[in-house]
């Protein structure tokens, strides 16, 4: 029992120790000590002591910082220029603004997830990189659930605000040579330039890469009040002549329609985009095989 008392005393003594962070604010240090020998996961009483110390009045977000669920951690890691952390059910941005993580509403319908999600809802469905190996379940659309305020904050809340960060790149200079406008936020222009460079070495893919279907267009998704992700300049549609879209197939816009999957986009194109953090609309039940959007937080 002596080591336990020693441990608790050590934590108590360190509670008052504070360090200065990059914003010149003071925050408590986080103490990390290995678990005692012979206890694979640490003693429960010791674990409770550590948690209590981390979530004390002086450090209310201590436990949250050390125990981020994978989804929150992925957001923080993939958007380091914008997000500084998480505390009190809020994502914390570097400008010190906060955004609610979980609105507490349970058992949302698919329509509600599309129309009124929170940040947490964006991770309801798992997007898996690589070859699509099995049929998609009805309404399985990982990436279509988007908390719009998050993207408005990063890329711009108005058309003019987004346009300020748009740059032109040449898409596949050897095979296509088309000029397209994309955002430089999150280095997306550089990532698309690299994707373009790699695909440009595959003349067999030219017909899919010619006549880019669209990048930046400030608009709503047809029939909804939701912004198209094209509004942010972080999305690209490749050649529509070799693409397939669920509404074209069913000749409807009914999200509840029974849809037969169809795809003609080669896997090499999908793999190249995913490598740089872009998800593919061909992995949705409501498929959109021309569509790639920058969502690195979702890629497993």
Short note summarizing the structure:
29% of the residues lie in helices and 13% in strands. 27% of the residues are buried. The strands form 4 sheets. It has a 3-stranded antiparallel beta sheet with strand order 3-4-5, with helices on one face. Strands 8-10-9 form a 3-stranded antiparallel beta sheet. Strands 1-2 form a two-stranded antiparallel ribbon.
Largest sheet: 3 strands, antiparallel
Overall geometric form: globular
State the separation between the terminal residues, measured CA to CA: 43 Å
> Using DSSP, what is the number of strands?
10
Average pLDDT for all residues: 84
Question: Widest sheet: strand order?
Answer: 3-4-5
Q: Report the structural category.
A: alpha+beta
What fraction of the residues are assigned to beta strands by DSSP? 5-15%
Task: Give the uncertain stretches in residue-range form.
Answer: 3-63
Instruction: Give the SSE order as H and E letters.
Output: HEEHHHEEEHHHEEHHEHHEE
């Amino acid at each position: 029992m002596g080591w336990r008392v020693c441990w608790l005393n050590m934590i108590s003594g360190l509670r008052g120790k504070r360090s200065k962070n990059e914003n010149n604010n003071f925050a408590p240090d986080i103490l990390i000590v290995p678990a005692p020998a012979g206890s694979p996961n640490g003693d429960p009483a010791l674990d409770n002591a550590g948690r209590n110390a981390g979530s004390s009045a002086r450090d209310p977000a201590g436990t949250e910082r050390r125990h981020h669920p994978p989804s929150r951690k992925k957001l923080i890691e993939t958007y380091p220029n914008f997000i500084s952390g998480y505390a009190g059910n809020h994502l914390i941005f570097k400008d010190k603004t906060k955004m609610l993580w979980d609105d507490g509403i349970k058992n949302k319908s698919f329509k509600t997830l599309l129309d009124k999600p929170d940040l947490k809802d964006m991770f309801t469905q798992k997007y898996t990189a690589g070859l699509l190996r099995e049929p998609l379940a009805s309404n399985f659309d990982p990436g279509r659930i988007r908390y719009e305020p998050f993207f408005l904050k990063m890329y711009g809340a108005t058309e003019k605000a987004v346009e300020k960060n748009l740059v032109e790149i040449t898409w596949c200079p050897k095979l296509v040579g088309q000029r397209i406008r994309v955002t430089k936020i999150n280095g997306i222009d550089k990532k698309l330039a690299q994707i373009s460079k790699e695909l440009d070495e595959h003349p067999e893919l030219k017909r899919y890469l010619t006549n880019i279907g669209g990048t930046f267009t400030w608009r709503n998704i047809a029939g909804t009040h939701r912004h198209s992700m094209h509004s942010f300049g972080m999305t690209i549609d490749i050649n529509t002549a070799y693409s397939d879209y669920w509404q074209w197939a069913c000749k409807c816009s009914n999200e509840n329609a029974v849809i037969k999957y169809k795809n003609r986009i080669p896997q090499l194109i999908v793999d190249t985009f995913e490598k740089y953090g872009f998800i593919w609309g061909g992995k949705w039940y409501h498929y959109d095989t021309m569509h790639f959007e920058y969502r690195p937080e979702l890629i497993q």
